């Protein structure tokens, strides 16, 4: 069974979690690594617990410490279960994304407010009734998660306010379409996503967001634009080298935003 919120506790007094890239390690003071096992296997890596801006924070590298997991292989259920087991009640899920619209440029941040799930084959729920009797979740009660507004408004506001304080361009709202990966979009797919009015494209936003909701945790994401996807407005299509270069250039700014947002989490 899922751990009831009121029964979750940690000797570390953790309330805030961050699931992001490996470049976030250095923003945690006095880190302690916690190894975990869950009913869904081990999470992507050990969870690092330490201080950020006076708050005790749990950090988990989504893809593993050495990018061990491509997007569709990330152990999302284990990651969220481990965070919930530590008592985390609010999660920031920073990620990278490609721009689908001409006003969103590499280096911009987008505090998304909607999500479109185009993934397939991922374990996307804790409430897996009908699964084999020995599968985790087979005995969970029937549950359909409310998900009309997938991102917590208070955490979104904290991210937007923090971005303004540190002087970075952060767009308020936008839909993030999540593709399965590991490949990038074709030009036809990218044009379709753009014509649908979606703002950015990413590979890891789902099922992380809905699993956090099922676990009773507030969740919000700030997406760093790293590229123009399959060539918005004549730009060169995305490459992995280009994505990594923009991430390296902006990781310090993203850490600054989180350091300013975390203290305001209730």
TrEMBL record:
Residues 16-262 form the Nucleoside phosphorylase domain. GO terms for cellular component: cytosol. InterPro entries: MTAP (IPR010044), Nucleoside_phosphorylase_d (IPR000845), Nucleoside_phosphorylase_sf (IPR035994). GO terms for molecular function: S-methyl-5-thioadenosine phosphorylase activity. Homohexamer. Dimer of a homotrimer. It comes from the Bacteria. Substrate binds at residues 203, 227-229. Pathway: Amino-acid biosynthesis; L-methionine biosynthesis via salvage pathway; S-methyl-5-thio-alpha-D-ribose 1-phosphate from S-methyl-5'-thioadenosine (phosphorylase route): step 1/1. Belongs to the PNP/MTAP phosphorylase family. MTAP subfamily. The gene is mtnP. SUPFAM superfamilies: Purine and uridine phosphorylases. It comes from Ilumatobacter fluminis. Its EC number is 2.4.2.28. The lineage of its organism: Bacteria, Bacillati, Actinomycetota, Acidimicrobiia, Acidimicrobiales. The record marks 185, 240 as: Important for substrate specificity. It catalyses: S-methyl-5'-thioadenosine + phosphate = 5-(methylsulfanyl)-alpha-D-ribose 1-phosphate + adenine. Signal peptide: none annotated. This is S-methyl-5'-thioadenosine phosphorylase. Catalyzes the reversible phosphorylation of S-methyl-5'-thioadenosine (MTA) to adenine and 5-methylthioribose-1-phosphate. Involved in the breakdown of MTA, a major by-product of polyamine biosynthesis. Responsible for the first step in the methionine salvage pathway after MTA has been generated from S-adenosylmethionine. Has broad substrate specificity with 6-aminopurine nucleosides as preferred substrates. Coiled coil: none annotated. Keywords: Glycosyltransferase, Purine salvage, Transferase. GO terms for biological process: L-methionine salvage from methylthioadenosine; purine ribonucleoside salvage. Phosphate binds at residues 22, 62-63, 204.
């Amino acid at each position: 069974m899922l751990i009831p919120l009121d029964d979750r506790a940690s000797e570390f007094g953790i309330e805030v979690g961050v699931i992001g890239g490996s470049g976030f390690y250095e923003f945690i003071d006095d880190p302690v690594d916690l190894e975990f096992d869950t009913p869904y296997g081990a999470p992507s890596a050990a969870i690092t617990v330490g201080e950020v801006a006076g708050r005790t924070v749990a950090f988990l590298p989504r893809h593993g410490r050495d990018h061990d997991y491509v997007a569709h292989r990330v152990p999302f259920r284990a990651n969220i279960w481990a965070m919930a087991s530590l008592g985390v009640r609010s999660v920031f899920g920073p990620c990278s994304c490609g721009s689908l619209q001409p006003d969103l440029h590499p280096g911009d941040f987008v505090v998304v407010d909607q999500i479109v799930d185009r993934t397939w084959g991922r374990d996307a729920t804790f409430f897996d009734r009908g699964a084999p009797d020995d599968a985790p979740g087979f005995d969970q009660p029937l549950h359909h998660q409310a998900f009309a507004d997938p991102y917590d408004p208070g955490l979104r506001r904290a991210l937007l306010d923090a971005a303004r304080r540190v002087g970075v361009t952060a767009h308020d709202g936008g839909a993030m379409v999540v593709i399965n990966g590991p490949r990038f979009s074709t030009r036809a797919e990218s044009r379709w996503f753009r014509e649908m009015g979606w703002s950015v494209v990413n590979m890891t936003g789902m099922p992380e967001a809905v699993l956090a909701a099922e676990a009773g945790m507030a969740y919000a994401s700030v997406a760093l634009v790293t590229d123009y996807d399959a060539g918005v407005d004549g730009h060169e299509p995305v490459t992995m080298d280009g994505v990594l270069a923009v991430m390296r250039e902006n990781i310090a700014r993203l850490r600054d935003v989180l350091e300013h947002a975390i203290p305001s989490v209730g």
